[in-house]
Amino acid sequence: MIPLGSQWLDIRLLDAAATGDHLRLATLGPLLTSSDFASRYFTGLLERQYGLTGEVLIHSSFEDAAQSVLEDRASALVVANAYSGINTFYMDRRFALAAVFIHPTPPYGLAALPGAQPVGRCRIAVHPACVPLLKEMVPSDQPYEAVLASSTSAAAGMVRRQEVEMALTNAEVVEELGLRFVSHTRRIQMVWSVFVCTGHTPGKTHDAAAFKPAGNNNARML
User: Fold this and answer.
1) Residue 212: CB partners within 8 Å, gap ≥ 6?
2) Prediction pTM value
3) What is the CATH number of the domain that holds 119?
């Protein structure tokens, strides 16, 4: 167990989960989510500090990502601590906490299509964990309906497809999809947890019973 200031790792667990010197990190997609960027940051940290290479495998939910680890299709699971269902992974005896690190999200803000005109009551795609930011970023005189999305990246895609008028999303996907911010932006300092299978032996298939998260699991992703 090695304290590294803004991160903590049990390199023995990560080494055991690796195939050779390579780790496959499973997390929430699609591309350009905050989870995707944080996982890429972590692979760079592992390479610089420990000589381990890595790749990021994105999934439609954290539960699907966890399942891929249990089925040995991925080495480790990366989850944002803001995710309301993270307790499932902490309590599951099939997982062990292998690392914790701090990495900010890309700048978050309200985005729309270029040239879009204001409407009376707008629909705003937003990830559930980001709902509190709406009070900060939506003008007080603007009526709106929050439409839940599975990630900040997915929220931006809903604007691109004109399913909603605005999205609370991140700067990387705004640039990628050709959207524009219509509010101020700010980063969120985020803690991330990395889980591996307990008693992991590379090439071994573990007890891979499907995840059944406790409580309501409607789009509780980041």
Assistant:
1) none
2) 0.82
3) 3.40.190.10
